[in-house]
Design brief:
The structure holds two protein chains of two kinds. By secondary structure, chain A is an alpha/beta fold. Chain A has seven helices and 14 strands. Chain A has a ten-stranded mixed β-sheet, sandwiched between helices. In chain B, strands 1, 2, 3, 4, 8, 9, 10, 11 and 12 form a nine-stranded mixed β-sheet that branches. A three-stranded antiparallel β-sheet of chain B has the order 5-7-6, covered by helices on one side. Chain B is globular. The chains are: A alpha/beta, B alpha/beta. The interface between A and B is large, with 55 and 57 residues.
């Protein structure tokens, strides 16, 4: 496997001009081009989705599980229940309506999820590390993630790569992905009447993965400055890698300006 | 007859040891004032239900009022974990042979909303398309698959949740308990209708005519309300849409305060046990911080015309 040419700096851009987090946010935002309704999670998804609304997806309707539809936040909300997502929104609805009519009713194109652990088929753990009854680390749990993974038309995942997070076997399945492979997943989704097609993109601090015909994630682009060695060191299985492997286009000056000046001026997500 | 009561009297009369208590509100309208009064009155063995236990239940668990949590997302949004609760879950935090883990009953958000909905509408379960191929039904056997009576489809069911007492914060109510709220509505209505007893805590007590002028905005009718407590700033560090902002600095500060049991108890001593009620708590928070939480400016809704039909 060849190292991508740009990883060594052939693109002419020193990686220090933008952070790994900024690259991850920009890559995630670009994946939202052409999408209409996106269910936004707390943290990194929040800033990526808001960047997409200001760049590649001006028609994007932001849905927050707290009950805001068509939100236009005037500041980056720390929580997904911030008052800024209500003022100026298209609708503020009870959570019952949001989960029943909007999500389960099939109106959500993209659900954006984070994860503590993910496996090669995009199954997600956000509940516990270790045994459920006697955990090493207790994590937040599902929130709305479980029903988002099942009912959103597709799922995007944004998370940093590490040996602890990209694992052969997750400790708890909070949100289903492609289960044990694409064939089984497609059959179960059809038989059980899930609206969602499952995970389609995983964006990390090192690259962008899509899912191949077997349902396994495949590295399709590597971020400028990242190496295949770093990719392999931070993943708990032998990853599939696209041939030829492209380099993720660098953040543009406009994207960086939006992140630094408008979306996250305090650098809460991008340091 | 007026249902207006002090927080102290309302909690003393309506919250009992061993109760299932729901202080609801999704990020918005979380009644910290009621949680603190429950701590001060040293209630014990409570089962605390909330979608997101949030800082309020972290503080209540730290104070020893709870036996069990019913929940769907256990974290400090955008900040991290809830450390006092984690100390009662993770065996590595065991303090000694008398350490007992907190009992947990865990769902997803939609599952919790469905539980309150079933409780409020007197149904034996609520069906939803969730939990397929996850470990949640194994972790909580009360989440069960059921077959549709009209076809071959299977969905999951969750049981009704009927709190002994639900406590809801809102912008305004009249003396009968007719309550209006705006902004994020969470599942306060469902949790209130599902409950045996309801305490409404408001920023402002208004005349009945104010409620009747805008009936679409009434979330909870006085019919199901047992007590109305007027407690300005009662949701701090949570927020009230149009009245005050979420105190995000406090949510960040709590992460450091709550990492150590000693600093957690010191905080409770100063800000909960050490004050008589919300007014004194807000004096400790201070004018400068309070001023910073006011909205930058108003964003009034337009008026609508209901018409008069005689």
């Amino acid at each position: 496997m060849n190292e991508p040419s740009a990883a060594g700096g052939a693109s002419g851009a020193p990686a220090s001009r933008f952070s790994k987090s900024e690259m991850m946010i920009v890559a995630a935002a670009r994946e939202l081009a052409g999408q209409r309704v996106c269910f936004v999670g707390v943290g990194l998804p929040n800033i990526a989705v808001n960047l997409a609304r200001l760049t590649v997806a001006p028609e994007l309707e932001l849905v927050y599980e707290s009950g805001a539809f068509g939100a236009q936040p005037a500041r980056l909300p720390l929580s997904i229940g911030d008052p800024t997502i209500v003022t100026g929104a298209t609708a503020a609805v009870p959570m019952f309506e949001l989960f029943s009519f909007y999500l389960q009713g099939g109106l959500v194109d993209v659900g954006f999820l984070g994860a503590a652990q993910i496996d090669r088929f995009g199954n997600i753990n956000s509940t516990v590390i270790g045994d459920y009854a006697s955990p090493k680390t207790r994590l937040p749990g599902s929130g709305g993630a479980c029903e988002i993974a099942i009912n959103a038309r597709q799922v995007f995942v944004i998370m940093r790569q590490s040996k602890r997070s990209f694992v052969e076997r997750i400790d708890f399945r909070t949100s289903p992905g492609n289960l044990g492979g694409a064939e089984t997943a497609a059959r179960i989704r059809r038989e059980e009447g899930w609206l969602g097609r499952g995970p389609s993109v995983v964006v990390t601090d090192l690259g962008v993965y899509h899912f191949d015909e077997t349902g396994e994630m495949r590295l399709d682009t590597i971020h400028p400055g990242a190496t295949l060695e770093q990719i392999r060191e931070t993943i708990g299985w032998e990853p599939k890698i696209a041939e030829p492997l492209a380099t993720t286009p660098e953040p543009t000056a406009a994207e960086l300006r939006l992140i630094r000046e408008e979306l996250d001026p305090e650098g809460a997500y991008t340091k | 007859m007026s249902k207006v009561a002090s927080m102290c009297d309302a909690v003393a009369a309506l919250v009992h040891d061993g109760d299932v208590v729901a202080i609801e509100g999704f990020t918005h309208l979380i009644c910290f004032a009621a949680g603190h009064e429950i701590i001060r009155q040293r209630k014990r063995d409570l089962t605390l239900a909330r979608l997101t236990p949030d800082l309020i239940y972290d503080q209540m668990v730290a104070a020893g009022v709870a036996r069990k949590l019913i929940f769907s997302w256990l974290g400090n949004p955008g900040v991290g974990g809830l450390h006092a609760i984690r100390r009662r879950i993770e065996p590595s935090a065991a303090t000694g042979p008398d350490w007992r883990p907190l009992e947990l009953e865990e769902y997803s958000h939609f599952g919790m909303v469905g539980r309150y909905t079933a409780g409020a509408s007197n149904l034996p379960f609520y069906p939803l398309r969730s939990y397929f191929e996850t470990d949640l039904p194994k972790a909580n056997p009360r989440i069960r698959p059921i077959k549709s009576p009209y076809g071959e489809e299977t969905v999951y069911a969750v049981p009704p949740l009927k709190p002994d007492v639900t406590i809801v914060h809102a912008q305004r109510a009249d003396e009968h308990g007719n309550t209006q709220m705006w902004g994020l509505l969470g599942c306060q209505r469902e949790a209130a209708f599902a409950a045996e007893r309801v305490i409404v805590v408001v920023e402002e007590l208004v005349d009945e005519s104010v409620i009747r002028a805008d009936p679409n905005r009434t979330a909870i009718p006085g019919l199901i309300v047992n007590a109305v407590v007027v407690e300005p700033w009662g949701a701090h560090p949570s927020y009230v849409q149009g009245v005050y902002d979420r105190d995000n600095h406090f949510y960040r500060d709590w992460d450091a305060i709550s990492r150590d049991p000693a600093t957690t108890q010191a905080w409770l001593d100063e800000f909960v046990y050490g004050v008589s009620g919300r007014a004194e708590y807000m004096r400790k928070i201070g004018d400068e911080r309070i001023a910073a939480l006011k909205p930058s400016r108003s964003a009034l809704s337009g008026e609508v015309d209901y018409g008069v039909y005689e």
